[in-house]
Amino acid sequence: MKTLEEAKLAVIDEFSMFDEWLDKYEYLIDLGKNMDAFPEELKTEDRLIKGCQSRVWLDTSFSDGRLHFKADSDAIITKGIISLLISVYDGRTPAEIVSDDFSFVETVGLKDNLSPTRANGLASMISTIKAEAEKYV
Asked: Is the dihedral of CA 112, 93, 98, 124 positive or negative?
């Protein structure tokens, strides 16, 4: 498994391959399409991320000192965004997640190139992932 820094650098490298934001959106859409299936029975109110315009479910489990995430969304770009976050933070220790600044999101320009409602949703996703990690620190 890559270190947290290696995982973030991999995302930065992936995004740097695309010159246009349209291509970056396509990349996010592909990430969302390639996510593992999310069981319908996990699409419950308590797993919904508050603050997202679209519906985003996040399921968290903790084993062997590491957090594991599964997610889904009813919006394809939003699904790609949560997939991107999970690709970096799944399998990390709670301490790694809590102490991380999530700055790679700004480095790739994601925050600046989303609509205001999607940017708010991204912030809510990050807050929720951190809050889940804080439960185990």
From this structure: positive
Given the residues 11, 52, 67, 86, the one annotated as active site? 52
Which of 4, 14, 23 is closest to 101 using CA atoms? 4
Note if 104 is an active site residue.
Answer: no
Whole-angstrom Cα distance, residue 105 to residue 44?
A: 27
Tell me the whole-structure pTM to 2 decimals.
0.96
Task: Say which amino acid occupies 22.
Answer: L
Task: Give pLDDT tens digits for 8-31.
Answer: 999 999 999 999 999 999 999 999
Dihedral pair phi/psi, residue 127, rounded to 5°: -60, -40
pLDDT for position 53: 86
Q: Which amino acid is at 86?
A: I
